[in-house]
Amino acid sequence: VSLVPVFSSSYIYVLLPIIYSIICAVGLTGNTAVIYVILKAPKMKTVTNMFILNLAIADDLFTLVLPINIAEHLLNFWPFGDVLCKVILSIDHYNIFSSIYFLTVMSIDRYLVVLSTVRSKRMPYRTYRAAKIISLCVWVLVILIVMPFTVFAGVDVSEPDGRKSCVLSFPHPDGLWFKTSRIYTLLLGFAFPVSTICILYTMMLYKLRNMRLNSNAKALDKAKKKVTVMVFIVLAVCLFCWTPFHLSTIVALTTDLKTTPLLIGISYFITSLSYANSCLNPFLYAFLDDSFRKAFKKMLECRST
């Protein structure tokens, strides 16, 4: 979601499509590979990987529509009609909410795993099928959250040049509606899920600390530790990419900054950083998870023979 109107400087005009194209190519390749590996490799069908699969699908969906955003930027107007405008803006907003909600679910799952390990209890309800149902529920929740943006998305014709733009067209008073939409996104797309994640990881660290102090408690085994660390790092990278975007919302709501070339450049950098999150996760899985590396390697060997 662009933070400012399109800036016409030649520097931004040339640089932005290059950045978006790299994000699109890398993200589409990496996330498609993750989806392929999880679906094809029998050993990859775990609860955590089911959530990773849906995270990759969400990222793939977003990178698929980036070329349309690039085309709009290069043309400096929207030529694709009202229906596609609603689709693109909806997917743009899915990108804001889906990643953080799947990471919230993964954090809940990690907490339950740690808790069961501390208590030396099994979790018969933690199954691949249950993870599928939960993933479907997350998608339904995200669709409901994004629905207002889908309703208000549309093609706007500016006066007097008649240039078409794909924007959120709010009713009067549009300024109040715009601020409300930003607060809505900030609360549901950042504040609530991140607060939940922080509470879960604080409790998790507390449990792990007490577990080490308790000689009778079993330590987390190596595999569980690795998965927990991987989820934590994926979460940390997500927050690194998205926190500036949401902080810019707070700045926009609390200050009245003038639109300057520097501010526009910062805004595009923040937007590009949030988009980049969609192509980073596959590299994190490959770097942090041995099973992913082995599965990737096996798939490549099978295709080369």
Secondary-structure-based class equals: mainly alpha
| Number of contiguous helices | 8
> Any idea what the CATH superfamily is called?
Rhodopsin 7-helix transmembrane proteins
* CATH architectural name: Up-down Bundle
**Strand content range:** under 5%
Shape: globular
Level-1 CATH class name: Mainly Alpha
Percentage of residues in helical conformation:
over 70%
Write out the strand line-up for the largest beta sheet, numbering strands in chain order: 1-2
CATH topology: Rhopdopsin 7-helix transmembrane proteins
Unreliable residue stretches: 1-8
Describe the largest sheet.
Answer: 2 strands, antiparallel
First and last CA, distance? 43 Å
Total discrete domains: 1
Instruction: Give the topology string: H per helix, E per strand.
Output: HHHHEEHHHH
Provide the gyration radius in Å: 21 Å
Family: Belongs to the G-protein coupled receptor 1 family.
Keywords: Cell membrane, Disulfide bond, G-protein coupled receptor, Glycoprotein, Membrane, Receptor, Transducer, Transmembrane, Transmembrane helix
Organism: Gouania willdenowi (Blunt-snouted clingfish)
GO cellular component, one term: plasma membrane
